Amino acid sequence: MRNTLLEIRGRFDVRMLVLYAAVPVFLGALAMQMLKLQWYEHAHYALQAEQNRLNIVPVLPVRGEIMDVEGRGLAINRIAYYVQLIPERVANLEETLAALAEMLHWSDSKLEQLRKRIQVTRPDRPVLLDDKLQWEQVSPLAARLHHLPGVDVESGSYREYPYAGLTSHLIGYLSLVDKEDLDGRYFPSEFIGRAGVERSFEQELHGSPGSQQEEVDALGRRVAVLKRSPSVMGHKIRLALDIDVQKAAADALGDSTGAVVVMDVHTGAVIALLSQPGYDTNRFITGLESEQWKTWLNDPEKPLLNRASQAAYPPASTFKLVTGLTGLQHGSRLANGSTNCPGYVEFADRKLRCWKRSGHGMVSMHTAIVQSCDVYFYQLGDQLGMGAISDAAMEWGLGVKTEIQLSPESRGSVPTQSPYMMSAIKNSASKRMKWFRGETMITAIGQGALTATPLQIARLAAAIANGGKVLKPQLLADVPPEVLNQVDVSEEHLNIIRKAMRSVVEDPSGTAYRVLGDAPWDVAGKTGTAQVIKMAQDKKKALSQDLLQRQFRDHAWFMGYAPYKNPKVAIAVFIEHGGHGGAAAGPVAAEIIRVLAAKEQRAGADGVQP
Amino acid sequence: MMRMLKSIDWILLATLFCLAMLGMVTLYAAVHQGAPGLWQKQGMYWGAGMAIFTMLCFMPLRLLGLACWPMYGVALFLLLLVPIIGDIHMGARRWLNLGVMNLQPSEIMKWALMFMLASWFASREARGWVEIVVPLLLTVMPAALIVMQPDLGTTLVLLFAATALIIAAGLPWRLFGLAVVAGIASLPVLWHFMHDYQKQRVLTLLDPQSDPLGAGYHVIQSTIAIGSGGLFGKGFMHGTQARLHFLPEQHTDFIFSVLAEEGGFIAVALLLFLYGLLIIRILWIGHRAHSRFGSLLCVGIASIFVLYITVNIGMVSGLFPVVGLPLPFISYGGSALVSMLAATGLVMRVAIESKGQIPWQRPGSPLA
Asked: Where is the protein localized (chain A) (predicted)?
């Protein structure tokens, strides 16, 4: 027993000796390999390390500029100088910063901010100290650069929006790429379009980055450029937008909150697309302070919202044109005849009022449009039914996206006779029917659940002018028109409506006579006044619109086209809480027409086609 | 408590302390310009690892002997689950998602198998069919599962530790020789079953210049770093290779190249000396252990350290293909550090239990 045990122990001792011996074998082999590399072949590798100094740096592409139809820059690139510092190469950081602060006129708080930024960045990476500098500002610094090791003055381009306030929603803005965007086409320091045209046409505008192989010294400083694959500049984009018209619209809107869309009736080209209030897109470029962003986000006026295409409002009386056309198409007796307006319409136990309490008396389609009689269209809507009205609304491009290249886009809403709508109220079938009948009549005058964007309304005006072609709004200049839907409507019926629209402006009893009657072009149009809250009519009457508190005031609409005989442009003006459509929105349209007419006259005088 | 302090193996602890210092200094050089906080984190991992080390110093080895069967069973079960419900990471299916954490069952198996074999041979020698075939099966089952994941590194660790244990347990040399021949003969079969990226790594090893910007890049750059360090190095934080970020993963698997570049052969020799000291000391503790289980445990742990060190340094200096094994106590990484400190804690426990005791060779010892 003892012998066996000793035998086992003895064998174990031998085995352990083998294992002890194995350790220096393994470690020794590693040591030999190290000696080979670090001693025998050291010179070879030292040389390789010397040469091992290629650095690949990106060459950023120049972003394509965005022009208006006459070639004026809406988003342009400016050359500017920026100052950066590589902390580990600076001899005395405090002295350097003090010298820079004096030359570049930095405030103490900025200096403090920079100190913090330098502390948190890797010492071998450049820290941006100041940018958007002009040559006059950096030239004294450039002369002293050799006294300031680690400081660098470089030139680069930055984006500028000369008409920032006017074009904020249309052009949009850029910001630094995020991790998600880095799919190989972008370098981390590049900018990418985040809204508007800058975003929709990112692919065209961006171009493609190149790269540069640089030789660097042991500290990573550039010694020479070895290879360069150039970047490809982004495409220039010319928009159909006319900044003169855009500016006229903005001037006419003044401080009002609202939107204006001007569109070529034949091509769908967007000549103006304005939403107010705007915001200063230039402030995004150097990295927007989150404070400013929050202010914009929380502003009750919602400056970031594009009211022309992202927001939908009740189209109010402008929608009567669609109801009227539908009546004519359906051969309704009322559409070809007339009815009496006593100032209200009664059905079952409900009473819907006309805006004119005293009533319009006997009204035909023509007078009902000219004077915007509600009772006539209540009755016409009642006869047509919700199905016919909503079908027609969709035909004319409401409740569907216009496919403009600005996202996100609101499609607005068109109520339908769906079971869902019917079950919206949990009541007896007869009560439901009654509710629905009232809802149909309200929809017929463009109120209730019906909403549309100003862009859709401008397109509706264009479609009435061009013979029922619902066009895709085109942002780019000189692109062929795209007809998204041809409404099945006869010229004869269209002419009845067009004539009435002309009378709205021309006839002294028309709702827009006072403001558009003397416009340089013959305008055909329709006003709209969208109720914001249900307020007893008599109570409202007591207060004039000016005195009503702003948020309770009605939304004002004007839509139309001009010239009447030879239509060129369609216009939609929407003013949030603007009050009466004719009085508030009409003058904006008038100003736009004046600018358009003047431009045409000038172009005619110069012998140049616009 | 005093008895405990007296029986501590101070040489083992001092070696560990020196490795900690060398590791933290090297890591500082490797990350001082990179992501902040890594160095501090590694310090915290050392703290956590030493806490576990201390706890294990109080755990009777008997408990480990009892726990190794269920531990092995659970690890094998989890390994079987991996191909069924495992997560795929970088082309390999190794992880089990437990909701709160991702678990790599092969990591558990590495230790479980070692405990298992030590326990098996604690009362028998590897000299008889049953005595050899059972541990062989215990090794081959998990190894096959892990190599299919595929995880070449851990498979290698498993096989290497098992081999060292079986040799210590008295495997006849004839059989060992036979196994080596069979292993070499089976290499072509292994090649057949290897994944493309693994084949690529082996090919790259044979000729790194064939793919200087792809798979060979790591090896070329780290070899340049090591070679250019020379005998005396470029000085602390003065490595040009490390500084210019030519080195991949320079704080984890490739940290050795930072040490070799900045400290030169002097630092490399110091590191290898410390490793040698550590491993010989572990073997010595095993040799003098009071229980055969403790002896074999130490052999297993020492063999794992040897393999990690050899594979890592061999990989970084172009001797072996790129296999992702960390450099013990030097590479950045919490779980590797903690598990290695835990293993060293077990060795310390063996030393504590054996202090003043006669090595197992008399009647009354476990084998009797």
From this structure: Cell membrane; Membrane
Task: Provide the residue type at A4 as one letter.
Answer: T
Instruction: Note the Cα B298 to chain centre separation in Å.
Output: 13
Question: What is the C-alpha separation between A484 and A394, in angstroms, rounded?
Answer: 12
Q: Does B330 touch chain A (CB under 8 A)?
A: no
Q: Do A48 and B228 touch (CB under 8 A)?
A: yes
| Domains of chain A with bracketed CATH | 56-238 (3.90.1310.10), 243-606 (3.40.710.10)
Among A270, A276, A224, A242, CA closest to A405? A270
Per residue in A45-80, pLDDT (tens digit) is 888 787 666 666 677 888 999 999 999 999 999 888
- Distance in angstroms (rounded) separating the CA atoms of residues A165 and A407: 19
Q: Is residue A487 a contact partner of residue A326, using CB atoms and an 8 Å limit? A: no
Cβ separation of B244 and A11 shorter than 8 Å? no
List CB contacts of B335: < 8 A, sequence separation 6 or more: B107
Sign of the Cα torsion B94, B96, B101, B105 reads negative
Quickly tell me which residue has 């063999």 as its tokens.
B303
B346: its two tokens? 């077990």
DSSP string, A80-113: EEEEEE-GGG-S-HHHHHHHHHHHHT--HHHHHH
Check B365 against A5: CB less than 8 A apart: yes
**Partner residue facing A27 (CB), from B227, B230, B275:** B275
- 8 Å CB contact of B33 and A124: yes
User: Does A34 sit within 8 Å of B302, measured CB to CB?
Assistant: no
- Cα–Cα distance for residue pair B159/B307, rounded to 1 Å: 10
φ and ψ at residue A55, rounded to 5 degrees: -125, 135
How far separated are the first and last CA of chain B, in Å rounded? 31
B250: CB partners within 8 A, 6+ apart: B30, B242, B257, B258
Residue of A nearest to B366 (CA): A5
Residue B113 has pLDDT above 50, yes or no: yes
CB count within 10 Å of CB B191 equals: 11
Token duo for residue A167: 């074009």
Place of tokens 């069952």: B105
Q: Which of A463, A537, A530, A525 is nearest to A494 (CA)?
A: A463
Q: Are B277 and B15 in contact (CB under 8 A)?
A: yes
For chain B, positions 170-189, list CB contacts with chain A under 8 A: 170
Q: Is the peptide bond before A188 cis (omega within 30 degrees of 0)?
A: no
8-state DSSP, A36: I
Residues A334-374: tens digit of each pLDDT: 888 888 888 888 877 778 888 888 888 889 999 999 988 99
